[in-house]
């Protein structure tokens, strides 16, 4: 029950990132790329301060650290660039679909036991997500932006798989952010022709970086060894559902019967998959 509770808290943090992003970018208070970079830098500063305060020390982490940092950067920039020309629902579907493939692939490669119930639960939850997020207008899909989101999903899957090997979750997350932040700033300068940053947008990005990303990602690394790759993959399918519920509560987005039905499928599938056997 403790693991289920901590997993729920982590998924809520991930979903809060989406709500904060929509609140800032959707209102024009900040462009998506600026939001991602500020979020990363704010998280790096806060986590570095926490490591110093707790006397954890700064460990480089070898090749594994490079994998985590690369995964984090691919995710941040792939996500930001994809939403310049991709429907939000379709983007989330591509993102979490690729995350599933990456992490289930990692589980199989590591010879992690994946019982039949977990495959069935994953299929049920993914079906609910497809029902919820697939656009119904038949609009043309930008292959470039869809590819960027697929890369983001691969990056996040890679980042999560590496987290299973970390001993100190807070220190590892801090080092990932600290190494990734300067690279993100340089890439931002090279890629961003123009940016929009208001006080409100900046505040939302900082909250996202410090709390729902920094603390949320540290908690994610802490529970990943107990979850395993396949259960961690399926658990993340709840994020779009929680994010949409948050949008209804905080952004006055409409509640629909389609959402209710799809949410039941997703949550039911995840609960089946969360069983150890």
Describe, in plain words, how this protein is organized in 3D.
It is a single chain. With 277 residues, the protein is an all-alpha fold. Helix content is 78%, strand content 0%. Helix 2 (32-53) packs across helix 8. The protein is globular, with a radius of gyration of 18 Å.
Shape: globular
Secondary structure class reads: mainly alpha
Cα-based radius of gyration, to the nearest Å = 18 Å
Mean pLDDT: 89
Order of helices and strands: HHHHHHHHHHH
The biggest beta sheet reads: none
Binned, the helix content reads over 70%
Spans with pLDDT under 50 lasting ≥5 residues?
A: none
**Total helix count?**
11
Number of strands: 0
> Span between N and C termini?
15 Å
Query: What percent of residues are in strands?
Result: under 5%
Please describe the topology of this protein:
Elements: H1 2-25, H2 32-53, H3 62-82, H4 88-109, H5 116-133, H6 143-163, H7 169-191, H8 199-227, H9 229-235, H10 238-250, H11 257-273
Helix pairs in contact: 1-8, 1-10, 2-3, 2-7, 2-8, 3-6, 3-7, 4-5, 4-6, 4-9, 5-11, 7-8, 9-11
Labels describing this entry:
0% strand; mainly alpha; 11 helices; 78% helix; 277 residues; single chain
